[in-house]
Amino acid sequence: MDFERHCAEIVNQTELLAEGIAGADLTATVPSCPEWTLGGLLRHLGGAHAWIEEVVRTRAQEPVPDPSRDVNGDDSGEPPVEWLLDGATRLAASIRDAGPDTKVWTPLAPMPVSFFARRMAHETLVHRADAMLAAGREFVAGPEVVTDAIDEWMELDALPQHFEFNPAKRDLLGPGRTLSFRATDADVAWHVDLTGDAIVNGRGLSDAAVTVEAPLTELLLIIYRRQEPVGVTGDADLLTFWSKHVTFG
């Protein structure tokens, strides 16, 4: 997926979320984020859209206050879909206006705005999955979007900066520690190699200590710890250990 598609998906995924939560109870607990209500989840996502919109619009080179961490609020009434849609639309417009190559502050390092276009497209996608779980409704996503979301996740998790921010992540590295994820309904797979001095993630099938085989969308939810693993063969303890060290988003 390219820069323009990522911008479009920020709005598209928000529109799908808005449709999916129509009439939902904002006090419902989010099973995948049990400390949040559905209303809190929506405030988090809308706050994240507003935060990154300010970073991009102002071409920030230093951290900007993040409102997405405060999820408290009024959970009465109808879901705030107009607020969510307006925020997503403004975020996508500011990202397009900045262009893909403009460098801005990110939590990892200064990066091109294209980083935030992709990150916020998939942040919205995964939080849409959370919202559907809370509302008791089906989560459906297109294979191209899901594949790109897993690609991004694998790329981000392999960044060496993680060892600086979280030294405990080095505990993942060790001999024989390899994982494989294969979609059963698409011709795509990913591998994780933890046997060296760095995390090496990428596309492709490979022999591994533990393998997860599941439909593509389920792989996304498993990798993001939104669903318990299914289709596991091999060292399930390694999968659990890896999952505890790599969660984000």
TrEMBL record:
Provide the GO MF annotations for this entry: isomerase activity
Residue span, Mycothiol-dependent maleylpyruvate isomerase metal-binding domain: 8-131
Identify the keywords attached in UniProt to this record, alphabetized.
Isomerase
By its UniProt entry, which SUPFAM superfamilies does this protein fall under?
DinB/YfiT-like putative metalloenzymes (SSF109854)
Q: Which residues form a coiled coil?
A: none
Positions of the UniProt region annotated as Disordered = 59-78
InterPro entries reported in the protein's UniProt record: DinB/YfiT-like, Maleyloyr_isom, MDMPI_metal-binding
This protein's superkingdom?
Bacteria
Q: What is this protein called?
A: Maleylpyruvate isomerase family mycothiol-dependent enzyme
Q: Which organism is it from?
A: Kutzneria chonburiensis
Write the lineage as a comma-separated list: Bacteria, Bacillati, Actinomycetota, Actinomycetes, Pseudonocardiales
